[in-house]
């Protein structure tokens, strides 16, 4: 791209091109090109995320390959915990780098290689072997994702002006959501078999991550002195000192049920009726629409009372999960509307949890200790996700319906635990 083209697009996408808060004079000269590279690479990464979604896409793939519910139940815990737990240890190394763009580029490339490995495993393995290998590759993808997570905001702050950072990430979120909707429609109406479409999608995710890493490495980032990171295991003492932090973590831990449940819904659908199992496109579409219609509303409500949003999200999650169990017992889960409808409601609850937990933590934590509170919370929840996921995987041996009933009880219990939280927005 020529410099004039980059500046033209930059001016078209941003309203304020004069103010460059937080950037050095030299960095300002490279901002138009950096802004576009951020928008493009983050869009590629978010699209890839949607194409390889463990909650639905990988769950469907493992079930299709004949892997047991034990492996299906491990997918979401591995992805989520793998992205959270390493941050306490990778953050100091990333902060010590003079140019942190290389950390994000390496993390993106790592996700691409892992996704390519998943495609290869799906083409060559079946049953338990496919379950073991794909879970291990997903763990590698999750660790790579954690490296991207700890480095991205810092690079964004160094290379894009303060008034335009939200625009860059907002463009990426919108494009990512739109791409997932297109993917869902292709799954519903495409001429190829669903297995072929899913493997093509995962292969495309691999290409997108590899391309994003290569493009991100071309960002112009000033070298800066390495910084010492404050993250350490010693911060875990906050759990003893702050009762509200403990209660918040209990609440967040119980609400992990909204993230862990979708794979078991896919598994239950496959057991109820083959036609239900084949409606992967409808499930992906329901999930993406739930994200688009609920995130803004949840965000507004969380600004008023994130505590009440946590409670409401738990109640909605419990009702939707109980609804799945009821529909299955009533023999209605195989109907056209049943599984996509309850998944839509569950995903609304899931996005409510995501909005409220981040808002509550930021508003609750003392300003000078927000990073420490975040590190402690993420570490404990990472462990809880692994524990809950392993418990759910074992419970799945008794049946997906039993596991979903347990998750419904967890979501319901979160309502009562969250009731004891302080109101931190007032």
Q: How would you describe the overall organization of this protein?
A:
- With 426 residues, the protein is mainly alpha-helical.
- It folds into 2 domains: 1-14 and 27-229, MFS general substrate transporter like domains (Growth Hormone, Chain: A); 230-426, MFS general substrate transporter like domains (Growth Hormone, Chain: A), CATH 1.20.1250.
- 79% of the residues lie in helices and 0% in strands.
- It is built from 19 helices and no strands.
- It has helices spanning 3-13, 25-29, 31-51, 54-64, 69-84, 87-95, 101-124, 127-159, 165-189, 194-216, 238-241, 243-254, 257-260, 262-272, 274-277, 280-329, 338-364, 370-395, 400-419.
- Helix 7 (101-124) packs antiparallel against helix 10 (194-216).
- It starts with a helix and ends in a 7-residue tail after the last helix.
């Amino acid at each position: 791209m020529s410099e004039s083209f980059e500046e033209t697009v930059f001016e078209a996408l941003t309203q304020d091109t004069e103010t460059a808060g937080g950037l050095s004079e030299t960095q300002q000269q490279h901002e138009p090109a950096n802004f576009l590279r951020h928008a493009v690479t983050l869009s590629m990464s978010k699209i890839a995320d949607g194409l390889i979604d463990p909650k639905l896409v990988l769950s469907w793939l493992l079930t299709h390959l004949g892997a047991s519910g034990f492996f299906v139940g491990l997918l979401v815990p591995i992805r989520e915990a793998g992205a959270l737990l390493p941050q306490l240890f990778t953050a100091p190394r990333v902060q010590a780098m003079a140019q942190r763009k290389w950390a994000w580029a390496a993390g993106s490339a790592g996700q691409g290689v892992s996704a390519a490995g998943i495609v290869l495993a799906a083409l060559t393995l079946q049953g338990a072997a496919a379950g073991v290998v794909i879970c291990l590759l997903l763990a590698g993808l999750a660790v790579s994702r954690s490296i991207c997570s700890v480095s991205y905001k810092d690079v964004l702050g160094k290379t894009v002006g303060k008034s335009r950072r939200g625009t860059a990430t907002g463009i990426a979120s919108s494009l990512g959501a739109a791409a997932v909707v297109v993917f869902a429609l292709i799954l519903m109406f495409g001429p190829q078999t669903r297995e072929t479409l899913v493997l093509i999608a995962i292969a495309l995710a691999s290409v997108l991550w590899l391309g994003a890493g290569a493009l991100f490495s071309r960002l112009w980032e000033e070298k800066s002195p390495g910084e010492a990171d404050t993250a350490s295991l010693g911060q875990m003492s906050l759990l003893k000192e702050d009762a509200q932090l403990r209660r918040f973590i209990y609440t967040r831990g119980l609400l992990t049920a909204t993230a862990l449940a979708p794979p078991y819904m896919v598994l239950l659908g496959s057991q109820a009726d083959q036609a239900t199992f084949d409606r992967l496109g409808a499930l992906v579409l329901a999930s993406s629409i739930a994200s688009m219609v609920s995130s803004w509303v949840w965000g507004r409500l969380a600004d008023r009372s994130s505590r009440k949003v946590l409670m409401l999200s738990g109640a909605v999650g419990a009702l939707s999960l109980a609804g799945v169990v009821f529909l299955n017992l009533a023999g209605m889960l195989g109907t056209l509307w049943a599984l996509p409808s309850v998944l839509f409601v569950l995903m609304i609850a899931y996005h409510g949890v995501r909005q409220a937990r981040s808002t509550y933590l930021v508003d609750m934590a003392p300003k000078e200790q927000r990073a420490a509170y975040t590190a402690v919370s993420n570490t404990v929840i990472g462990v809880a996700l692994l524990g809950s996921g392993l418990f759910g995987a074992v419970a799945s041996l008794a049946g997906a319906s039993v596991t979903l009933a347990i998750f419904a009880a967890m979501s319901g219990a979160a309502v009562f635990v969250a009731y004891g939280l302080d109101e931190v927005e007032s």
